[in-house]
Design a protein that fits this description.
- This is glycerophosphodiester phosphodiesterase.
- The protein is an alpha+beta fold.
- The protein contains 13 helices and 35 strands.
- The strands form nine sheets. The protein has an eight-stranded parallel sheet with strand order 29-24-23-35-34-33-32-31.
Amino acid sequence: MRRSAAVTVLAAAMTVALLAPATAGGRGGGGGDDRGRHVVQPTLVARATLSADFIAPGPPSGAAATPANGRQGPFPGQVVPGFSGMVDAGDGTFWGLTDNGFGSKANSADFLLRLYRVTPDWQTARGGAGQIQVGEFISLRDPDRRIDFPIVNDATPDRLLTGADLDVESVVRAKDGTFWIGEEFGPFLLHVDASGKLLAPPVPFVGGKSPQNPYLEPGETPNIRASRGFEALASSRDGRLLYPITEGAFVDDPQQRRRTIYEFDTAAGSYTGRTWAYQTHRDANLVGDAFMTGRGELLLIERDDFEGPASVVKRVYRVDLRRTDPDGYLTKTLVLDALKIANPDRLGSGDGYGTDDPFALPVQSFETVVQLRDGRLLIANDNNYPGNAARIPGTPDDTEMALIDLRTVRTPHASDVTVVGHRGASGYRPEHTLASYETAILQCADYIEPDLVATKDGVLVARHENEIGGTTDVAARPEFAARQVTKVIDGRSVTGWFTEDFTLAELRTLRARERLPEVRPANTAFDGLYEIPTLDEVLDLARHSVSCDGRQVGVYPETKHPTYFDSLGLSLEEPLVAQLAADGLDGRRAPVIIQSFETGNLRQLDSMTRVRLAQLVDCSGAPYDLVVAGDPRTYRDLVTRRGLAEISRYADGVGLCKDLMIPRTADGSLGAPTPVIRDAHRAGLEVHGWTFRRENQFLPAQFRSSADPNAPGDLAGEIRVFVGAGMDGLFSDNPDIAAATVG
């Protein structure tokens, strides 16, 4: 079937509160909107910090804490290791809940569980000290012996509770001034009065037990992992219903991305039996906090366990308990990406990584979100003192509180030139990792590009090639040494380790590595951190992300070696189309473009899906499916007028090797443009070029900065020449430079 050549993108699926109705066009939209678009731009308007080394009154703490970042206990009083939950006191002050202390039962017996009343002296555009003042505190205690298991201070009259007794993580306040607290060792729900006294025995969880549960029977297998209990707890506005949320997945759940929201009736003192499922972006992500904004609507923090530049997901989503997707998960809508918050007043600038404009909260434990009465969001962190050092390596993180205004702004006129994050933002993070894709999104890419290969059990994963010796740590894994083999891939002999010889579960044990360490040594700092993502995870990240012009981020998947994978019985096309359909990305206006260097699978896809297709064309050689079929046509034949007309019968665009558009002269400089862009446009095809990289060795001679092949040159200059020649979009390892140039 013949396709429309117009490139259009689906407006981001945001609620009215977050994004005004979308207009056609915009970057990558085949036609701009001079008026821009109304979008919500989370903006930092106030910030305050508390020194990581602040000591509150009380007995020494941290005698058994693990030394880190130049700090070693015991400390001369009670440390305040950030806040894992907060309550708005309504008078400019807040109650901040510290967790169990130093990370485990074993090292936190001298840490007293408390709620601190804190007063931020906000730094704003008008000034302010930017400091958190710590006032009175409430000690959690059990003088009435509601707890029937042994505690550290069992024999004392007050029975002050410690981090060896309970792991408190989340808090809400009832209308009568009492507090309900979510806990992880049980997990339990705790009810304390305004003085911190336990009012009733800890409420056991109906869903199971953790390894630290004091009621665990001999031989009983806990179904909740350690420290994966009630990190999040929300309350209905009238205080009648509580919504505790499991931080992690149940051990025996086959869907390890599932987190469960429960409902507890405080009047009845029991769980109601109602539950909801929330899906994280990856198995290891956590639900850090929750806040109920209205009837059935919750704000949820989803975060990873990385910190500083390694951070990938530090987000706030809105869910409606009345809305689920076809798989039964709550529909989630992005409210705040805490890795990109506008900071026009540069509040906190100079305080370390992520404190310029944009501002980021790249801490490991992003664990507090509260919506204030004026609609602004309060966000804060638990700093796991003294272990976290997200801002300044080697220096413990301060406790931070920040106010975020969800202000509506009009975006500038969007460029008509599409920017594709090539393998993510592979100039800054190891390619084909969620970190690379998230970086590309933060850098204003319109599309992210996963190359797709298959596992032994038929799951599509993102790798540039099916040979993974250079992009993972597989060569250092002795358990997989025997998997090294030599294969013929598209007529070429390749030795290494191949995805089709590993199940997904086996691949999950590997970690990504920088493919070009000599060229991009800074990227090697992230070696060993990230998993190989599945197509499903890449699509999930994109469809829950918003580009800089307010549109849903697109996905530009490439099917790698389709003829080869067909020969193994691991066809790429069917699972790709099925996954797009499952994620609601199979419509004509979906922000998806499927690309391939082969022709036959694109013709097949043309009859299988309504999304747009792009024929990739290399500077030399021929599509492998044509070689196998004995067809003498080469890539050069595909870009003749006749070849382009044939492509237009099954595809919407072409992805061209740069030299086909503007060849280089003998001295390495750019020559005169060829007719290929003009001819492609006449055939009704969009033209996207690849690959635009900033290092000198990849640039034409006139845009190199020096003789150092790995030094950055003038990538923007090269891009301007190609855009001036009529190119409609580009693949770049450096989407920040590309977006700034074409925008």
